[in-house]
Amino acid sequence: MIPSSGGAFEVLVDGATVYSKLETGRFPDERGLVREMGDKL
Fold it and tell me: Which of 9, 34, 36, 39 could bond 21 through an S-S bridge, CB–CB 3.0 to 4.6 Å?
């Protein structure tokens, strides 16, 4: 985890962005995010 400021909530797996709150403007659905992270692993 890397602390941030300015409302950023970015989730990366092996350098690939899985979710970006800065792009969507909202927090992710927890189940969907976990599923996407699992798919990348």
Answer: 9
Domain boundaries, the chain: 10-40
Distance of CA 36 to the CA centre of its chain: 9
Query: Which H or E element spans position 21?
Result: helix 21-24
Question: To which residue do tokens 């941030």 refer?
Answer: 4
- H/E stretch holding 20: strand 16-20
Position 31 scores a pLDDT of 94
Please give the full DSSP string across 6-18, using - where no structure is assigned. SS--EEEETTEEE
Look up the pTM and report it.
Answer: 0.71
